[in-house]
Amino acid sequence: MQIPDLDAVLAIENQVYEFPWTRGNFIDSLVAGYEAWLLDDGDTAAGYFLALQGVDEMHLLNISVAPAAQGRGHARQMLDALCRLCRQSGCLQLWLEVRQGNERARQLYRRYGFAEVGQRRAYYPAAQGQREDAVLMSLQLAAQPLNPEAQP
Fold first, then answer.
1. Does residue 48 have an active-site annotation?
2. What is the maximum alpha-carbon separation in the chain?
3. How far is it, in rounded angstroms, from Cα 74 to Cα 83?
């Protein structure tokens, strides 16, 4: 993903999230050198992820699949690519937060091998000025099989 891709990325972001990232959030992440990947499905953007690398771990900040492209294995494909990138970078653990109420995503992450390891209270903005808790999830990469077809 690069700055010229942001129109397509923001189109997905605004369809998928009630409280989407802004163009500025994406630009700041790209300028800071975060890992960013855009998944093309033919001639259109199907999804993307952004992740922040630490010393020996990676933190998945945002992963999204366009509504029209959901249910085709794209999220798994991007997770495979991110795990490959983690291993190439020497990262042993992958972290993420997910909305407590996003059961579909939580189920995907659990099937992928993530464990629910904690909670962040009032982490996400919610409707009517409320806040929603996040579930903290972690994947130990040494135990996760790698799909050789996934390329970051």
1. no
2. 45
3. 14
List the CATH code of the domain at 3-143.
Answer: 3.40.630.30
Q: Which of 97, 116, 123, 149 is catalytic?
A: 97
pLDDT tens for each residue of 102-137 = 999 999 999 999 999 999 999 999 999 999 999 999
Catalytic annotation on 109? yes
Paired tokens of 106? 């939580």
Span between the terminal Cα atoms of the chain, in Å: 11
pTM score: 0.90
Residue-range domain boundaries for the chain: 3-143
Catalytic residue among 34, 48, 109, 124: 109
Residue 26's CB is within 10 A of a number of other CB atoms, namely 23
